[in-house]
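Bumping my old thread because nobody answered last time. Still need a sequence for this structure:
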């Protein structure tokens, strides 16, 4: 039966993707090119420095390491400035109800995010106590699609990866969950997330019983 659920943060619990996009786009514009929403899709779930490298490649800009670190820092400061507007009611629709249902059924809850800012965002949402395991960008050496972030989460929760569901809005994250041997639920569009075991538009009206049945878990 299902033992745990691991959640990505950005784009699953809260829509911070819009703030990442604003801050990355401003960086691109400083170098004279634009970053489209479609290109931004490639950056979801991808760590900060790796994202920067992808953006610079898109703009055909070559920067020494030192300057890349400076630019990543500026981007992060801008991102954090934008994140100051996050309030508890910004948790995406249905998230709180679904987490409550997990708690009521003794399903463990963990976070698996590439973001080094994850603890801070959870604080702003007043959701820190919900997560029994918190794996973020400060704790992993390999980014998604490597399964490390989710395997660490399962290990810390003391659960079997095969009895775990991963919720992800990014293709790289779905691939990481699959590589970890977990069931994956894509949150977003089917065309982007077709590698997931199941794709949902969001958590609204999601029932644990129908979810576990659809994913082939034994009744709780
Ligand atoms: C998440 C987001 C990415 C972001 C990454 C690192 O995975 O989807 O867009 O680049 O975290 O975030 P950070 O807050 O550490 O820069
Ligand atoms: Mg995400």
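Sorry it took so long. Here it is:
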């Amino acid at each position: 039966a299902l033992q745990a659920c691991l959640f990505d943060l950005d784009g699953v619990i809260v829509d911070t993707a819009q703030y990442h996009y604003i801050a990355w786009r401003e960086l691109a514009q400083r170098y004279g090119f634009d970053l489209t929403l479609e290109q931004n899709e490639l950056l979801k779930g991808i760590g900060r420095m790796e994202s920067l490298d992808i953006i610079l490649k898109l703009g055909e800009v070559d920067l020494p390491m030192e300057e890349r670190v400076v630019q990543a820092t500026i981007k992060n400061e801008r991102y954090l400035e934008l994140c100051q507007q996050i309030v508890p009611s910004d948790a995406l629709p249905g998230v709180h109800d679904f987490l409550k249902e997990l708690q009521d059924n003794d399903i463990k809850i963990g976070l698996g995010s590439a973001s080094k800012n994850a603890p801070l965002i959870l604080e702003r949402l007043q959701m820190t106590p919900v997560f029994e395991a918190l794996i973020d960008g400060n704790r992993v050496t390999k980014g998604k699609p490597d399964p490390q972030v989710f395997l660490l989460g399962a290990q810390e929760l003391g659960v079997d990866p095969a009895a775990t569901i991963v919720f992800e809005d990014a293709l790289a994250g779905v691939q990481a969950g699959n590589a970890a041997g977990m069931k994956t639920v894509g949150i977003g569009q089917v065309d982007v997330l077709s590698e997931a075991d199941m794709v949902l538009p969001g958590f609204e009206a999601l029932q644990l019983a129908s979810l576990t049945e659809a994913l082939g878990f034994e009744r709780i």
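The CA atoms of residues 135 and 152 lie 7 Å apart. Let me know if any region looks off to you.
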